[in-house]
Hints:
Blueprint: H1 7-24, H2 31-45, H3 51-64
Amino acid sequence: MSGIGYTGDLALLKQVFDRVCAEAGISVGSMEAERLSVSAMELFSDGEFDEAVLYERLRLVARSLPR
């Protein structure tokens, strides 16, 4: 893995992140959104590019965030 994020990959990651935030009621700019974005980037950095897997993993993270 090169560690390079291609435009399409990053767009997919943002799309999944936005979807999970909307479904979980996480506000943009909130601490929850920040924590979820860190998890999203960790998954991405680990080489996870599958939309369904990203979605399910981020949903699990969103559920575990303190409110």
